[in-house]
Amino acid sequence: MSHGKQFTLYSCTLGPNGWKIPFLLEALGLPYETVYLNIMQGENKEPAFLGINPNGRIPAIVDHHNNDFILWESCAILLYIVDRYDTEGKFKYSDPNDQYRVLQWLFFQASGQGPYYGQAVHFLMMHPVKVPTALKRYQDEIRRVTGVLETALSKSQWLVGDKFGIADMAMFPWQALATRGVFAEGDFDMAKEAPHVHDWMQRMLEQQPVKKAWSKREEFVKAVSNGPDWQKAHESFAALSKA
Ligand SMILES: N[C@@H](CCC(=O)N[C@@H](CS)C(=O)NCC(=O)O)C(=O)O
C-alpha cells in the first residue's frame, strides 16, 4: 500500500455500481484511494485485477487496516463497512426488522435492479445486432422496478427506517442512470411517472457524501460529452482523482 489510506477502492468512471462505495466512505469519513479501471479496454479482465476479483467486475475494496482484506460485490462491501466501521451507528437500526429490510433492498438491488437495468444498456449500446424486443423487455423492467420504488417511497422519505442509509445508497446510482439514454427523449419522465422516486433522487443529491462523490462522476460525463476522446478523458479523470 503506497498511498497510506485505509482503503483501496477499485472502481470505474461511468458504471454505476462503484459509486455506492464512496457514498458510504465519505459519510463515515473513512480515507480511501480510488483506482479507476478502464473497463472499456478490459482492464478489469486482466490478471492483476482478477487476482482481486475473480469475477472481473468493479467495485472491489482492499481494507489495509484488516490485513489487506479483499471484498467484492458492492452490496457486500456496504454491509462490511457498516458492520465494522460505523462505530456511531449512523447506518444501523435499533429495530432488528429494519436490518432485514436493508438486506431486502440490497438483495433486490443486486438481483432485481442492476441486472435488468444493465441489460437495457447492453441491448441499447453494446449488442452487435438490434433486438427491439429485448430492449423493450428491459425498458419495461426499469418501469416495473421503478414502480416498486415508487410504492415504497410514497410511504416514507427513505427506503428503510426513515433515515438516509445504505439501501438508498445501493439503489440510487442505477436509478439515476435509468432515464438517461436508455429511453428515447421524452419516453420516460421520472417526475411524472414516479414522482416520489424523483423527489427521493433530489433528496439523495442533497446528502453531502452523495453530492461529493456523484459530482465527480458528473465531471467525467461532462469531459466525455465535450469531446469524443473517451480514453483521454478517462486518463485525465483518473489523474485528477489521485491529486
Ligand atoms: N453485482 C455487482 C455488479 C458489478 C458490475 O456489474 N460492475 C460493472 C460496472 S458498473 C462492471 O464491472 N462491468 C464490467 C464487465 O462486466 O466487464 C456489484 O454490485 O458489485
From TrEMBL:
Q: Where is the GST C-terminal domain?
A: 95-224
Q: Which UniProt keywords apply?
A: Transferase
Describe the location of the GST N-terminal domain by residue ranges: 5-89
Cited Pfam families: GST_C, GST_N
Q: Which residues form the signal peptide?
A: none
Keyword Transmembrane helix listed? The answer is: no
Asked if the Swiss-Prot or TrEMBL record annotates the protein with the keyword Transferase, the reply is yes
Q: Which InterPro entries match?
A: Glutathione-S-Trfase_C-like, Glutathione-S-Trfase_C_sf, Glutathione_S-Trfase, Glutathione_S-Trfase_N, GST_C, Thioredoxin-like_sf
- What protein family is recorded? Belongs to the GST superfamily.
**PANTHER family with a match to the protein in the record:** GLUTATHIONE S-TRANSFERASE-RELATED, TRANSCRIPTIONAL REGULATOR URE2
Q: What is this protein called?
A: Glutathione S-transferase
Organism annotation = Heliocybe sulcata
